Amino acid sequence: MKSTFHLKQVKNQEGFTLVEILMAVAILIVLIALLIPNLTGGSDKRNAAIVMRSAEGIMSGLAKYKADIGAYPAALQALWDKNAIDSSIADYWKGPYLDTPSKTNGSSPSQNIADQNIAGVIYEYKKVTSSGGGSGTCADSSAIGSNNSSGSDHTVKITAVPHETATVVRDKLGNKICLSDASGGTTDIYFIIEEAW
Question: Which helix (H) or strand (E) is 21 found in, with range?
């Protein structure tokens, strides 16, 4: 007589298989790896890159404007809006020197640029004058306008930058920028426009 051995099949398994558990652990590891840079200052580095890239674009637009007009504008709006400049120099305006920003701050004709990625951050053109002269480079805002004969520095002032972001910018650029503590955990950054004095 032949004996047959039949395994009883379990139709309603409860619990998870080893493969399912390993997949869940793998997904958790990937999510943790994505979150760690944000928890360890990755967002500050990203914001610093945004600030530096934006300031560079604005300074380039200011240089082109000055090359055509012969002077810097009273406000950044003149870089994208011909109506924001005096009619006596309108014939020399060959802009726009900067794309129209998606967010602005202020009223026409003196609108500044509001950062669309970092809440509260504003970019503006600022001529800083000091009785001692102008600087060209500095470590903090008290040095702006202190070392050149004309007594002023042309800057792109960026207001309300989070302290941590400003620190990353300072670490990357050193004395090419000036910092000034502002209220509410923010710092103002001055990018000095390099000129031959």
Answer: helix 18-39
Residues 122-180 have pLDDT tens digits of 888 877 765 443 344 454 555 554 444 455 667 888 888 888 888 888 888 877 787 87
For the chain, what are the domain ranges?
A: 42-192
How many other CB atoms sit within 10 Å of the CB of residue 48? 25
Query: What 3-state DSSP class applies to 108?
Result: coil
Distance separating alpha carbons of residues 68 and 154, to the nearest angstrom: 17
Alpha-carbon Rg for the chain, nearest whole angstrom, is 28
- pTM here is 0.66
For 103, how many CA atoms within 13 A lie in the half-sphere containing its CB? 10
**Per-residue pLDDT tens for 46-88?**
888 888 888 888 889 999 999 999 888 888 888 998 888 888 8
Q: Which phi-psi region, left, alpha or beta, contains residue 78 (left: φ > 0; alpha: ψ -120 to 50)?
A: alpha
Sheet containing strand 152-162, edge to edge, reads 104-105, 112-114, 122-129, 152-162, 186-192, 177-181
